[in-house]
Amino acid sequence: MSAAAGAVGRGVPLEAALRARRDAGAKLLVTYMTAGLTEDWVDYLQVMVEAGADAVEVGLPFSDPVMDGPTIQEASVRALARGVTPEAALSALAVREQPVPLVAMTYYNLVLRAGLERFAARAAAAGVTGAIIPDIPLEESGPWEDAAADAGVATVLLAAPVTSDERLAVLCRRSRGFVYGVNLMGVTGERSSLAGSAGVLAKRLKAVTDLPVVMGFGISTPQQAVEAAAAADGVVVASALMRAVLDGASVVELGAAVADIRRALDRG
Amino acid sequence: MTLTGPATVSMGEPSETGRFGDFGGRYVPESLVPACAEVESAFRSAWSDPQFVARYRGLLADYAGRPTPVTECHRLSAELGVRVLLKREDLTHTGSHKINNVIGQGLLTVAMGKKRVIAETGAGQHGVATATAAALLGLDCVIYMGEVDTHRQELNVFRMRLLGAEVVPVRSGSRTLKDAVNEAMRAWVSEVETTHYCIGSVMGPHPFPWMVRELQRVIGDEAREQCRALLGGADPDLVVACVGGGSNAAGTFAGFVGTSARLVGVEAAGGAAVGRGAPGVLHGMRSLLLQDEAGQILEAESISAGLDYPGIGPEHAYLAGTGRAVYADAGDEEVLEALSLLARTEGIIPALEPAHALAWLVRAARDGTVPGGSTVLLTMSGRGDKDAGQVMELIGDRLDARLAAKS
Fold first, then answer.
1. Where do the CATH 3.40.50.1100 domains begin and end in chain B?
2. pLDDT tens, residue by residue, A137-182
3. A149, B110, B263, B289: which has the fewest C-beta neighbours closer than 10 Å?
4. ipTM
5. Under CATH, to which class is B19-61+98-197 assigned?
6. Considering only CB atoms, which chain A residues are within 8 Å of B24?
7. B390 vs B134: CA distance, rounded Å
8. pTM, two decimal places
């Protein structure tokens, strides 16, 4: 489907951007914003970028987010109650070009309902260059990976602590943009300390892939971000930031929180 | 609707990827893939192990009270003009077909060396059944139940606790059955090494839809032989069962799919996944789901908490697509009428779920969809005790008026 190359959007290519930052010696910081959480949610996304996020995951809320813990669930419920749809969220993103890659994070039913090709093309047109869909494992994700690739969207695959070496190799071969290492056996959400499984998985991933390895789940503080990034190329911080927005943090305050994590990662 | 269907569809094993036609599959996060594979491999060896099957059948007989009888309903048959036979799952221990599944999965939990089960429940029937099996087999048990349902079904919450289970009220989303499934899956991810998720219906990721159907096929296998004994070697013209996720229907249909009987599944009008749903992915499976145009899952609405599920098991979606089974629905009002009719004519108070199957049959017999003189097997999947309070609130006044008119 090379004709679909015309559908490639104007977003920043995910893998190239992250590799360039990594090769320049930086630890990668990927933040997360629930689309539609507030009227000015794009301003929150914007401030994350200004405060030093290397990429931003845009959560397209789903009614039944099985991989998400209480914080992202609450953010999703609130955004859905405000009437957000995938279409509205992508339209809002399309208004402002971002200097870093945007990664759509959602569940498969929203993608299927729109149609794989249509969803991928729509996301690309809005400047999205990556996608994370946690409820399609390797065995089921082939059709989506193809549709996404045709539209210029990188499908980021997730590796878990229980993933076998054999699956890990396949997963790293097929993942695009980066590999998302899930720190722990559980759902997203803040934790008081970093899971012991995090470092082990990061090392296993680094041993088999040259793709950027970014760890996520349960990273709440700058200190945890530094710890989790030690054996990997970077981290995803999501729930802790959404907790702050849910609790009323202003755009400026959220920017400061992201800047804290950025500084900690840069200090190492 | 027409009731003809080819008898060429079988209910065998799903494909290697767990598919029945286009439906099924294993749409779970990477963290749960090894656990699903473990359950599949454990069930495959258990189900072909004569010792495991003997223990399962032994407990079904000595503990759950199988085989359950088939009861011929003479007075109801006279009223409807069709010959009605009921497969009496309501007479099992704990009062519904759910026990067949939980005994099987309970034994499987032990076989896998795990000491703990978790389960979701809507009205509480599967929760009570799971807590029962856990008590019997010495397993720790945690039941996830929507907070709304814990209030609606206080007595079942107490039953589960009495049986030694912990009941966790689920406060996410709509706080009902689908959210209880979400929460149980979330819990399973973090406890998967010690815990088996005992899914209550023919739903979820592969192998659950297939495994639960196999554990429920005892209903259909028994009923087919019992019907043949009653009918001089013949099979019924029609086999009818209610469908939420669809486990009693799947178990019943599995016994008759190779016969000439026409198969009818009856959904709640407010939860009609075949009637009003569209293909999608939820709770680990591709099936027919109630959803909006963006793909957000909608709430099912029915007086029957057991049918309050926005999806349907993937094998039913497949059977519907092939036409081998047809799916109809029944509304709250006719369900209450059918419940009263069976109570008055046969002395059997059905649960609200099978009362849906009965309501469809009453309507279909009266409007000629089911020709007079047909023989119908209907699975009476559970007894009505659990619903008595709710039914009293709904039609108690009507009953008083009827009694007053008589005297």
1. 19-61+98-197, 67-95+218-406
2. 999 999 999 999 999 999 999 999 999 999 999 999 999 999 999 9
3. A149
4. 0.94
5. alpha beta
6. none
7. 28
8. 0.96
